Amino acid sequence: MIRKVVIVGGGTAGWMTATYLNRAFGDSVSVTVVESPRISTIGVGEATFSTIRHFFSYIGVEEREWMPHCSASYKLGIRFENWRAPGTHFYHPFERLPVCGDFDLADWWLHLDGKVEEFDRRCLVIPGVCDAQRSPRRLDGSLLTGTMGEAPQFPYAYHFDAALLATYLTGLGTARGVHHVRDDVVEVGQDERGWISHLVTKEHGEVRGDLFVDCTGFRGMLINGVLGEEFLSFEDVLPNNRAVALRVPHDMAARGIDPYTTATAVDAGWIWTIPLFGRVGTGYVYSDQFCSPETAEATLRAFAAPGRPELQANHIRMRIGRNRRSWVRNCVAIGLSSGFVEPLESTGIFFIQHGVEQLVRSFPDENWDERVIGAYNDKVAAVMDGVKEFLVLHYRAAARDDTPYWKATKTRALPPGMDRRLELWRSMLPDATTIYPHFHGFEPYSWRIMLIGLGAQPDRPLPALAHADASAALAAMDAVPRRVERLIEELPGCHAYLDQLNG
Ligand SMILES: Cc1cc2nc3c(=O)[nH]c(=O)nc-3n(C[C@H](O)[C@H](O)[C@H](O)COP(=O)(O)OP(=O)(O)OC[C@H]3O[C@@H](n4cnc5c(N)ncnc54)[C@H](O)[C@@H]3O)c2cc1C
Predict the structure, then answer these.
(1) At a CB cut-off of 8 Å and minimum separation 6, what does 183 contact?
(2) What is the reported pLDDT for 45?
């Protein structure tokens, strides 16, 4: 039996993994987190994916318990600014496209209208709710209803301070029995087969375990450093390899809280704007082939914090790609040590959640079944490769090509098979059978919305629609503004709701 799990690293990955495993196995498996008091965590990672709620519900904490500890706010989607051309914007919300007959509203829109500036507002209600800065919950806590899709999607994710979340989970985990060693791992012991037998810490001696989880961030101390697993870079297709971040105080009472992340395309990359309860997190993601750290910082300051030279910038070098295998012998890498694509669709924490969910399902015994481990590695790789392809689409499909950086996005290499998919999507929008074929967290509606919003919609509508009755689709589109109006009336402002939640 595997009785003892040792996690190295106390960032978001380390503590999400610890609390999840503790909830899954209780006292039957001992969980220890060894966390360096000297090596800091990455200090960013503030926007999430809507499936994150399953993590909180699995570990059994309610929004009113954890959100106030983490400066958390709601995220209904991502607003993309300047991606088609400077001055344009559209939303990628957590909202499936409504279906009328055999086709969804994106197909109908292309047939009936086709004005790209109006697509998201004609077909979806969440963009209007975002513009009005509404909360997805009413003051009594009940959830927004009345979005358009036949299979409505849970409408939101969160923004939060990742460092505060790690602190909150540390308190929760240790109260539930997770062991916490605040020390540096200075050496790693291996047995004659090369399996990890123990860690040597600076001040707390040896820490022994059966299964070791590498949550050491971009260092990949165990998986790459000790076990020598190959890291496959994605920089040939996703060249952004640096970021600079700022934390900007925000007068929420005066300006409200936007319930969405904004990704603003700029000369050599894009800037994230993430409104938390109390401040805004912002950062410029760029490629060092096209921009220096000094220029990036100056651009970010001018954009997000003019006249605030006292705010400290955090410069980060990003390792973009994934391990060939994230589970090697008795070591599983979760978090940045496993892999990372740039934060454009907020998938870093989603990767952690996926990794630990799959680890529980694939939890080993003393047989260490290689077939199960192989399947785990395939799933983790597919999630990251799928997100990689989705992000490549963002750059390739963006109509913008006004700087050397944006020009290069049109000629860069594509992941295998993607050229054929892109070619098809010039004639018909993506569907479940033509997007990246393995689970990667994004559904076809996301690919459709991005393709249209970025300005790369198919050249013409589906011929079949010329034979179909459009009245239901027109009625559905006409109903969108009425539903938006009703939601705006019913829902409180995001700031008002969060103010109440924070007491
Ligand atoms: C620019 C940027 C923006 C991002 N934005 C988002 C976002 O919006 N949404 C999202 O979901 N994700 C985002 N991410 C990803 C997200 O930040 C990470 O997935 C998440 O924070 C997990 O990090 P981690 O715990 O793997 O690593 P880290 O935070 O780097 O933690 C590493 C831990 O390992 C410990 N450690 C290292 N070496 C040793 C040692 N020798 N001994 C003991 N301990 C050791 C450190 O002390 C630390 O506790 C972003 C990442 C970057 C780079």
Answers:
(1) 34, 35, 36, 37, 201, 202, 203, 204
(2) 79
Q: Burial of 254 by CB count in 10 Å (0-12 exposed, 13-18 middle, 19+ buried)? A: exposed
Sheet holding 327-328, edge to edge: 179-182, 30-35, 4-8, 211-214, 331-333, 327-328
Give, using CA atoms, the residue closest to atom 50 of ligand 1.
45
Other C-beta atoms closer than 10 Å to the C-beta of 402 total: 13
pLDDT one-digit tens code per residue, 101-141: 999 999 999 999 888 888 999 999 999 999 999 999 999 99
Q: How confident is the model over 29-39, as a mean pLDDT? A: 98
Ligand 1 centroid–CA 189 distance in Å is 24
Task: Indicate whether residue 9 lines ligand 1 (CB < 6 A).
Answer: yes
Mean pLDDT of 256-264: 98
User: What pLDDT does residue 174 have?
Assistant: 98
Asked if 362 and 371 touch (Cβ cutoff 8 Å), the reply is no
DSSP 145-209: ---S-SSPPP--EEE--HHHHHHHHHHHHHHTT-EEEES-EEEEEE-TTS-EEEEEESSS-EEE-
Interhelix angle for 471-490 vs 105-112, to 10°?
Answer: 110
Answer whether residue 251 shows pLDDT above 70. yes
Domains of the chain: 4-46+161-234+320-368 (3.50.50.60), 96-154+386-494 (no CATH)
Which ligand 1 atom sits closest to the C-alpha of 334?
A: 26
| Residue 344 host element (H or E) | none
